[in-house]
Write a structure and sequence with these properties.
Helix content: 55-70%
Number of helices: 4
Largest sheet: 2 strands, antiparallel
Structural class: alpha+beta
Radius of gyration: 24 Å
Number of domains: 2
Order of helices and strands: HHHHEEEE
């Protein structure tokens, strides 16, 4: 039995992070459809499961990899937003964060130094701020 499954899956894409995320999203949508008693959510969950199974059994590996990489980029951008907020919260006692008026680059400056002349490393603009 195990050998038959292995031969069937040979040359197929299989499971990846996007497939796992689709499965989790489908379960969440199913739970919402039960709580809210909305038939449309049940159909959305069903569509997510179909999309997940289609991706796993697909033989077009290049397209599935591109989809997964696009998912990773969005996931990293989303998680990076929260990671930045967490870093700012942990360092707010010792540092201040400013944006360069020219290029909008985020700059970290030590707190409690009085008025500082800040030089942006990206565009080399100099501006003064009180820390």
């Amino acid at each position: 039995m195990r050998d038959k499954l292995r031969r069937f899956m040979y040359g197929r894409y299989g499971n990846d992070d996007l497939s796992r995320a689709l499965s989790i999203a489908a379960i969440g949508v199913y739970i919402l459809s039960i709580i809210l008693r909305l038939q449309i959510l049940y159909l959305v969950g069903y569509a997510l499961i179909i999309w997940c199974v289609f991706r796993m059994f697909s033989k077009n590996i290049d397209s599935r990899r591109r989809e997964n990489m696009a998912f990773w980029r969005y996931k990293q951008k989303f998680l990076g937003f929260f990671q930045t907020r967490k870093t700012h919260l942990t360092q707010r006692r010792t540092h201040r964060f400013y944006k360069c008026p020219n290029c909008r680059q985020k700059l970290r400056v030590p707190k409690g130094r009085g008025k500082l002349s800040i030089n942006c490393p990206k565009c080399h603009t100099t501006f003064e701020k009180k820390t």
